[in-house]
Amino acid sequence: MLSVENLVKTYRTGDKALNAVSFTAPKGQVVGLIGPSGAGKSTLIRCVNRLVEPTSGKVRLGDLDVTALPRGALRRARRRIGMIFQEYALIERLTVMENVLSGRLGYTSFWRSWLRRFPPADIENAFRLLDRVGLTEHADKRADALSGGQRQRVGIARALAQEPELLLVDEPTASLDPKTSRQIMRLIVEICDERGLPAIINIHDVALAQQFVARIIGLRAGAVVFDGPPDALDAAALTRIYGEEDWTAMRKAAEADREAERDEAERLAGLA
């Protein structure tokens, strides 16, 4: 379980990016983190694994106080936290398989990793992960030969290769088309359910978050202004998070997208 307690991040300029943020995420729960640009979503995710150092507060993963760890112990703790990036963060010249195996670098000796000689068990597991994300036939392709959706699937498999206890996902669909975005979100949610993984997903697409995640946290100016199930995210809650907008029109557009997806699925089922 992830527990965030009164997390604060204040920059040297005096700007407060996070203001006493608190929440818990139990095993298997996928939390969508929404809010306007500059609300603190990316800062929160990066404070959880201390890519950004919080000013105060605590982050606990199970019985481990991540915020209290010295550097050496922090490096080991980060093996327990998988990160999936918006821009994929793949090594373009390496193959899909090599990128997935890079998720095991924290467990592998320097010379084994330098020579790319990973234990057979790691290689077998990498093949299983590639099968799970639908990329088995692309194992020997270079990463720069893949589409955006395929690259994101490699990023998911690499994060899972760490055998994490938590997933942090930073805008996984920002560079993807709507259909691929739904496929990636569905894959992340299914994997978290299968493995009992809590996940925090920073996502701009409110309708997509409502469609897939079990819980939504809304940030504004670094503070939590909404925390609840997707169906409780009404016009009043959206206004607290984002300000005034025609939320009825947004909902109609989102429903039209979902209907189009259902129609396409039914059409493909009829062709099968």
TrEMBL record:
Residues covered by the ABC transporter domain = 2-246
One GO location term (cellular component): membrane
Q: Which UniProt keywords apply?
A: ATP-binding, Cell membrane, Membrane, Nucleotide-binding, Translocase, Transport
List the InterPro entries: AAA+_ATPase, ABC_transporter-like_ATP-bd, ABC_transporter-like_CS, ABC_transpr_PhnC, MetN_ABC_transporter-like, P-loop_NTPase
**CDD domains for this protein:** ABC_PhnC_transporter
For molecular function, the Gene Ontology terms on record are: ABC-type phosphonate transporter activity; ATP binding; ATP hydrolysis activity
**Origin superkingdom:** Bacteria
Concerning NCBIfam families, the annotation shows: ABC_phnC
Protein name according to UniProt: Phosphonate transport system ATP-binding protein
- Species, as recorded: Rubrimonas cliftonensis
